[in-house]
Amino acid sequence: MIDLRSDVMTLPTEGMLRAMTTAPLGDEQVREDPTVRALEDDLTGMLGQEAAVFVPSATMANQIAMLCQVERGQEIVGERHSHMFRYEAGGPAFLAGAVVTGLPGTAGVFTGAQVREIAQLGDSEHRPRTALALVEDTHNVSGGRAWPIAALDELYDTCDELGLAVHIDGARLFNASVALDAEPDRITARARTVAVCFSKGLGCPAGAALVGRADVLAPARRIRQMLGGSLRQAGVLAGAARYALQHNIARLADDHANARILATLLAEGGLPVDPADVDTNFVFLDVASLGLDRGAALERLRSHGVLWSNAHHPGVLRAVTFIGRSEEDVRTAASRTLKALTTG
Hints:
This is Low specificity L-threonine aldolase. By secondary structure, the protein is an alpha/beta fold.
């Protein structure tokens, strides 16, 4: 069985496991874990920021970022299908009492002009005050699309002018960096806060971090404690993350190449896939246009030895390439997908 459901299916490599079992440890909750401290220093340098906090998940990193910057009743603006808005269990409303305003986007990208049009910059008797602009890079629902640098700069310029903070949900930030051939700090240095995840394309079993300006993150550790995210000998996980930052970023290009191979083979075989939409490691397949319901299509695929998953869009399936899935695996998956969906 070739499993392409998500890049959260990664497993640690032997090298990563060695890094985990040999990492120096201490009590992270009192800032005495040397591996966590080293990881946080690594991240501030890589992302052009001042401070970092290691957390269990990128969802928690996003929520802490919000709680550090958004008061109850204030507004967050972002692309309407952003992960924080759609797939974090209503955290902005439940935890922060925030209003979320979703903007229409193209491939996950919205513009500074859209923010300018909607932002409420002062107190109002009727409208929530806008506090934060949210960027998801890469953008999951749009198919792992990376924000073009020019579009990001335009948004930063507008938000700087308006006095709005920008938070980067960078669960797949390093995919964007590789796809754009840009250093990570070229994407993140102007943001107020950045969330990064280690358990997707970077191949770690768990872990994430919130990185940002020191003054903004001053309450972050207390908020992490409130959310139940404080850790003790967390160097076991931080060791995996440090290994990933050293060894698993450049190889993301292999995942992107494999996704393009998969998309091209399927398109050449007559399936409704557009290789031009593959920026990083996601491939979308429109099974509705084949007259198939997603459940039936997934069952056909499973019976032929390949696993896809439901995409956000109705009638669309998703495959994701990642470490542990070789070019040979992807070519075999393409053959099995074609057989499953063109012959039944």
